[in-house]
Amino acid sequence: MQKEGKVVPLAAAIDRGARTPLPCFPVLLLQVRDKAALQLRQGLQALFDNADDTLFEMADRAVDRFDQNLYFEAMRDLRLKRKSIERGFLDIFYDTFARIGQFDPLGQLGEKNKAQMERTVAVDGMVARVLSRDGVALEQLGKRLQCLLPRSFDEQHNPFGPAALCTYFLDAGRNLGVGLRVKLILLKLFERYVLRDIDVLYAEANQLLAAAGVMPELQPAPRRRAEDRRLGSRRVSANLEPDARAADSAGHAFMRSLEGLLVPCRGRVAPRVQAAASAQPISTADLLRLLSHLQHYVPATIDDDDFDLGQQLEQLLLRVSVRSGTRRRIACADEDMIYLVGLLFAYIAADDNLPLSLRALVVRLHIPLLKVALLDKSLFSRASHPARRLLNEIAAAAIGWETGSEGLRDSLHLRVERIVQRLLNDFTEDAGLFAELLEDFLAFSQDERRRNELLEQRTRDAEEGRARALQARQQVQQALNQRLRGHTLPQVVVHMLVQAWSQVLLLAWLKHGEGSQAWQQALATMDTLLASIAPHQSPQALLQQVPGLLKALRDGLASVALDSAATREFFQQLEQLHLRACEGAARPVGSDELAEILVAEDIVLAIADESACAPLHQLDEQAAELRLVQRLRIGSWVEMLDDDEPLRCKLVARIDSSDRLVFANRTGMKVREWNTVSLAQALRRGAVRLLDDGLLFERALESVLQGLRQQQVL
């Protein structure tokens, strides 16, 4: 018998706050879903890594400025929005899976305007190609899913089908703001990087279900070889993906476009040798040998001012000039590259979005990255370049790092330290070393990310449970105060209602909800109890009520495991109160235990401090900060500066019902919470600052280019 599990999409839940409750599915189905989601995420990452290259190449080939600007704007939009598209795609995938059998993945492709029709034609062609290759495996997967579902299911509603996957992608990028031609290009990229290997997804899902005993008699569909997938990929992108020469050509075009900005800066690198008009330029190969020599002497700390790359090169060139008898300098193109890469690393050295210790490690990669740039100009035109990706991946993993009890012996710090040292020791001119280190670091960071996501999910679940418990307490307090405040009542009854029956009410609200019969019955029992202890004109009517009342009270108190001795004592005192009510007595007779008290103040149940749940008060002078906080997305990083040591944490949950923003550290453990106003106030007074978690290389390059343009204007 299959175990039941709650459908809680981990990857999507990281990027969103509250979500609607999802149905229960067999754990086996959840395993299929999560394994598929991992492959789909990897495919999307490959898509966006290569989209930059494709659009840059198309911009380079564009015949008019309008098209060129279109492609460059699309590149910029994709860089800024790739995370939101990836998250949106997975969110839609998870939500569709939760409604499996009830959702028509083609339903949103039926609009009849020209753009929609052209996209539909493109999607139809993609779907037809997938079905012709992998239709058998998809059909088998559909049959196996049907065995595990409690309702009817057909291929049209399969969340793994190619039409559904295309719909997720189109919906996730609906607000991208690019033209139809760019969208069609992105669809082709989606086919190449996501749908190309969809047979692997189908095969692994079928294998997992068959191994668990779901229709094992079905013969596995023939698997396509990797070579077949590569051939298919080339057919899809024959006129789309630039080869290595084209990518390098785009890099050269990029550097040529910067010449006008870099010419005024010439002479700043090694000025004594560059100023000599008679000096002969050294070759790029000789420059690389000088840099390989220098990279073994890169200092270990960012604060070492003795190592200036320009000065070091100048000293080496002076020695070379003395030995050869010929004055030597750096070629203009190579000098431009040295200056440009120097500006990039100056930005990185000053970028306080990265922790200082890890920033110092990244800055030590200055010479290896410069050598890569001299060897391969596509570093600037290809987002998927291994060296560029390695830098970005290290920065992304490092943003939440902080010095813990282990100091610098943290696993991430040690891993980055090993990567830096390996490059300084071993990198000469083979960029394959960057690809090898990138693959190793991705495996490390993905394992760590999975562990952290699990802890984040637990934190989120705990906070949502806490918010629900608070809401329940507030409802119970309101119900008690409506009935007790301002009334003079027997102390024993007030004590029982506040201490014990409040727990019965809490349990009914939490388990069944405010509109449930259990909640209404618990309230009705409390009302009946209060009515029964008032002086009665008709003792007979009271005697008819008492048996049902006592049973309801016993059942309720038993459900919250009230101590049996306390329960017995209460019922003995309640019997005395009922006798007094039958006699019409207005005050207790001969027993201090039945003394009455005036409930003069609001009843407040004993709960933990909920100061973060204070109501929101709009303050005009904080409007900008409030808007900033309200736009804060799940996964955003902040740094707290009001403690002894700065603490970095990211937003993992928004609890709208109680206006709480919950933040966790890099490992997923909760470290802080604010409401909207308190976080806005903290931002305003500088106690908290937002961190920029955008791609480091892209941020640095954009900042450098902006600075060069401003210098030209001045």
Show the helix and strand layout.
Elements: E1 4-6, H1 10-14, E2 24-26, H2 27-61, H3 65-98, H4 114-148, H5 162-172, H6 180-195, H7 198-211, H8 226-236, H9 244-257, H10 259-262, H11 271-274, E3 280-282, H12 284-294, H13 309-324, E4 328-330, H14 332-350, H15 356-363, H16 366-375, H17 386-398, H18 411-426, H19 432-484, E5 488-490, H20 491-512, H21 517-532, H22 539-559, H23 564-583, E6 596-598, H24 623-630, E7 637-640, E8 647-655, E9 660-664, E10 670-674, H25 676-684, E11 688-690, H26 696-713
Parallel strand pairs: 3-4
Antiparallel strand pairs: 1-2, 5-6, 7-8, 7-11, 8-9, 9-10
List keywords for this structure.
26 helices; elongated; 714 residues; alpha+beta; five-stranded antiparallel beta sheet; disordered N terminus; two-stranded antiparallel ribbon
Mean pLDDT over the full residue set: 78
DSSP E strands, number: 11
Largest sheet: 5 strands, antiparallel
Estimated structural class: alpha+beta
- Measured by DSSP, the beta-strand proportion falls in 5-15%
Total count of helical runs of at least 4 residues: 26
User: Termini, distance in Å?
Assistant: 75 Å
* Helix share bin: 55-70%
Radius of gyration: 34 Å
**Numbering strands along the chain, what is their spatial order in the largest sheet?**
10-9-8-7-11
Question: What characteristic shape results from the CA principal axes?
Answer: elongated
Low-confidence stretches: 1-23, 105-115, 225-244, 608-619
